[in-house]
Write a structure and sequence with these properties.
Strand order of the largest sheet of chain B: 6-7-8-3-9-10
Strand content of chain B: 25-35%
Helix content of chain B: 25-40%
Shape of chain A: globular
Strand content of chain A: under 5%
Largest sheet of chain A: none
Mean pLDDT of chain A: 88
CATH superfamily of chain B: P-loop containing nucleotide triphosphate hydrolases
Radius of gyration of chain A: 19 Å
Largest interface: A-B, 20 and 30 residues
Number of domains of chain A: 1
Distance between the termini of chain A: 39 Å
CATH topology of chain A: ABC transporter involved in vitamin B12 uptake, BtuC
CATH class of chain A: Mainly Alpha
CATH superfamily of chain A: ABC transporter involved in vitamin B12 uptake, BtuC
Oligomer: heterodimer
CATH topology of chain B: Rossmann fold
Largest sheet of chain B: 6 strands, mixed
Number of helices of chain A: 13
Structural class of chain B: alpha/beta
CATH class of chain B: Alpha Beta
Number of strands of chain B: 12
Number of strands of chain A: 0
CATH architecture of chain B: 3-Layer(aba) Sandwich
Shape of chain B: globular
Radius of gyration of chain B: 18 Å
CATH architecture of chain A: Orthogonal Bundle
Distance between the termini of chain B: 42 Å
Order of helices and strands of chain B: EEEHEEHEHHHEHEHEEHHEE
Helix content of chain A: over 70%
Low-confidence stretches of chain A: none
Mean pLDDT of chain B: 94
Number of helices of chain B: 9
């Protein structure tokens, strides 16, 4: 176990009990009425979901940055998150949200559709540029269709529901969402780890990587599966949670030897920690309604992104 | 194990190139811009699939070999020398072990020592000079202990001292049994340091043989269209154009 992994595991071990107790109402396990039920049925699944989503998004971000050899890459680039969001919006549009399984199912179908389209368009030639462009076009198309659905929402309630859902949150999530997201995210991270050796080879550029045995088609297949499962399941249960996949690998990279393999696992752990802490902050802030997780992370993420761009500009100057 | 090409065709780049390369030698591929040198090297490395013809390693066609087997046998050093992330030299060199799926600590340290990189082993590549970076990239190839080292213009960005140092390392690898194939623009370096020179012109082989024959004044005038003559002794020749 590397030092960053050990430190992050330690921090997560400290943060989880804190997140169970923190909230608009702080729980005292010994005196709060129904404390055991609140902890077991509300706080614990929410904490596990935060860890799951953070880990999945950050591992995907690290893999995407390694694949594109670009620090500005984000899991949204492949169009899988917008695809999942489109699926979820479709279920809300048709009023299926009342059934607890249908919204995540539609979102997963949306993610699967984006993955299939990506594989179909880019899989034949396996070039990185075509693959990325295909992902961006799918993202653009899914985004446009989502906006179209919002503009044609059957009633104000549906529109409000769609917009609120798109902001991303872990409010009122239960074990059901954990059972949907956790196995898929774990499987997705497993796929990304399978891609790790090929991502390391890509440090040397495409030609040298292929000479080291990197198979572009195999790598793309693992990446589509990995990003699809982690991001698709994350969006399915929590909506759009932005910037985690972009920020976290940057925070972690200086603590490692910077090879994609070395960044992947610490990114997953740091992402889990970040989303857990961010969700706690959302719950604790004294606002009229709970701050949406997606908004909170974007409020932190956007300035970070700008700082990154400024630093890169200085580097290029 | 012989690396051979049979009647290679690549649209617009190669038109019927055949050759058989022996290990234990340094072979230079020379030719004017656009002659097909890099394309030939990439075909030999199994990175470009020819439109017709085939490349074989020890009699087996390259596409029939398992990717890992091919990657273990042939080390390829591209011209660009790209390193995407600011990894330390030791991590960069260790990438050469990827086809072997081991850490190969002994081989990595041996490659670092062979290219005099021990003091720089923990330094990020962004803080290396051009010569140090070229050595680190070659060390990456050597760490994989390939039977064949194929390098595209490995000396292009280096000053004279670093060129000679890198050629010494490549000669040592050849003496230890590896086959070394270099794309070179500098004809004097090819003349003085290669055992065999292949001259390409418009995708075909214009000359193939010992440097004195393949890079004769007549061939240079025919292929590069530049009147030239060699001065000096064998092993220390200088090219003078007029």
């Amino acid at each position: 176990m590397t030092r960053p992994v050990a430190i992050l595991l330690g921090l997560i071990a400290l943060a989880v009990p804190l997140s169970l107790l923190a909230g608009r109402v702080w729980i005292d396990p010994w005196s709060t009425p129904n404390a055991a039920a609140i902890l077991a049925e509300l706080r614990l699944p929410r904490a596990i979901l935060a860890l799951t989503i953070g880990a999945g998004l950050s591992a995907s971000g690290a893999a995407m940055q390694g694949y594109l050899r670009n620090p500005l890459a984000d899991p949204g680039l492949f169009g899988i998150a917008p695809g999942a969001a489109l699926g979820a919006v479709a279920s809300l549009w048709f009023g299926f949200a009342a059934s607890p399984w249908l919204l995540p199912l539609f979102a997963l179908l949306g993610a699967a559709g984006a993955m299939a389209l990506l594989g179909l368009i880019a899989g034949r030639t396996a070039g990185i540029a075509l693959f990325t462009l295909a992902g961006m076009m799918i993202a653009s198309l899914a985004g446009a269709l989502t906006s179209f659905a919002i503009s044609l929402a059957p009633n104000a309630f549906a529109m409000s529901e769609i917009v609120t859902w798109l902001m991303g949150a872990l409010t009122d999530r239960s074990w059901r969402e954990v059972w949907i997201a956790a196995p898929l995210t774990l499987a997705g991270i497993g796929c990304l780890l399978m891609a790790a050796r090929d991502l390391d080879a890509l440090v040397l550029g495409e030609g040298a990587a292929r000479s080291l045995g990197m198979d572009p088609r195999r790598l793309q297949a693992w990446l589509i599966a990995g990003v699809g499962l982690t991001v698709g399941s994350g969006v399915a249960v929590a909506g759009i949670v932005g910037f985690v996949g972009l920020i976290v690998p940057h925070l972690v990279r200086p603590l490692t030897d910077r090879r994609p393999t070395s960044v992947l696992l610490p990114s997953a752990l740091a992402g889990a920690l970040l989303v857990l802490v961010a969700d706690c902050v959302c719950r604790v802030l004294p606002l009229v309604t709970e701050l949406r997780l997606g908004i909170a992370l974007s409020l932190v993420g956007a300035p970070f992104f700008l700082w990154l761009l400024l630093r890169m500009r200085r580097g290029l100057a | 194990m012989i690396l051979a090409a049979q009647d290679l065709h690549l649209t617009g780049r190669l038109a019927g190139v055949s050759l058989a390369l022996e290990p234990g030698q340094i072979t230079a591929i020379c030719g004017p811009n656009g002659a097909g040198k890099s394309s030939l090297l990439q075909c030999l490395a199994g990175l470009l699939e020819p439109a017709a013809g085939k490349v074989t390693l020890g009699g087996d066609a390259l596409p029939a070999l398992h990717q890992r087997t091919r990657a273990q046998a042939i080390g390829y050093l591209p011209q660009e020398g790209e390193v995407a992330w600011d990894v330390a030299v030791r991590s960069l060199v260790a990438l050469g072990r990827l086809p072997h799926r081991d850490r190969g600590t002994a081989q990595v340290e041996a490659a670092i020592a062979a290219l005099d990189l021990a003091e720089l082993a923990d330094r990020p590549v962004s803080r290396l000079s051009g010569g140090e970076r070229a050595r680190a990239l070659l060390a990456r190839v050597l760490a994989g202990e390939p039977m064949w080292i194929l390098a595209d213009e490995p000396l292009a960005a280096l000053d004279l001292a670093h060129q000679l140092a890198l050629l010494r390392h490549l000669r040592r690898a050849a003496d230890e049994g590896a086959g070394v194939v270099l794309v070179l623009h500098d004809l004097a370096l090819a003349m003085n340091h290669a055992d065999r020179v292949i001259v390409l012109s418009s995708g075909t082989k214009a000359a193939d043989g010992a440097p004195e024959e393949a890079l004769s004044a007549a061939i240079i005038e025919q292929v590069w269209r530049v009147p030239a003559r060699w001065l000096g002794e064998p092993g220390a020749r200088a090219l003078v154009t007029s």
